[in-house]
Write a structure and sequence with these properties.
mainly alpha, 9 helices, globular, 2 domains
Length: about 170
């Protein structure tokens, strides 16, 4: 969380907000109160995403293939039971989060870093509800390109989802 956001909270310019690890721990350590957990209101919200402009990906395809391969391999390594303790420690140390926050992050990891259009739909629905995405709405497929992921994993791309729909 940026210093600006904490200052805005302190000065009363923000009544409430949702923050994710590690910022939730920082806010709690600075005296703010936890009113609710985001996961109680937005279950299965996509918390890890990798974003790039399509033109950049086209111009840097080799880098993107290497990145996706590393991302998938790292996810799979992290989810192996024999690596759990080391993964927990890495998360805690790198992100400066508690063990319980690291456990939550590990529970949210998806094998093979799979692209799940239904979970992208959750994000889109939240944006629609908040008035941050006006019609006409594009199909969920607009928000991802699974070609490199499929190439790296050898798995088929996700089935088409189509237009955003209520959860």
């Amino acid at each position: 969380m940026s210093r600006f956001r904490l200052d805005a909270l302190r000065k009363g310019r923000v009544a409430a907000c949702m923050v994710a690890p590690p910022y939730d721990a920082q806010a709690l350590s600075e005296g703010f109160n936890l009113l609710a957990k985001a996961s109680d209101h937005i279950p299965d919200y996509v918390t890890t995403g990798c974003w790039a402009r399509r033109t950049w990906v086209e111009q840097n395809r080799d880098k993107m293939v290497r990145f996706v391969r590393a991302f998938v391999n790292a996810t799979d390594w992290t989810l192996k039971p024999e690596n759990r303790e080391q993964a927990m420690q890495l998360l805690q140390d790198y992100q400066k989060i508690s063990r319980s926050q690291a456990e939550i992050k590990l529970q949210q990891m998806i094998p093979k870093a799979e692209i799940k259009p239904s979970e992208i739909n959750r994000v889109v629905q939240l944006r629609i509800e908040m008035g941050l995405y006006d019609p006409p709405h594009d199909p969920i497929e607009r928000f991802y390109d699974a070609r490199i992921w499929s190439e790296v994993t050898g798995l088929p791309p996700p089935a088409p989802f189509g237009l955003p729909r209520p959860i």
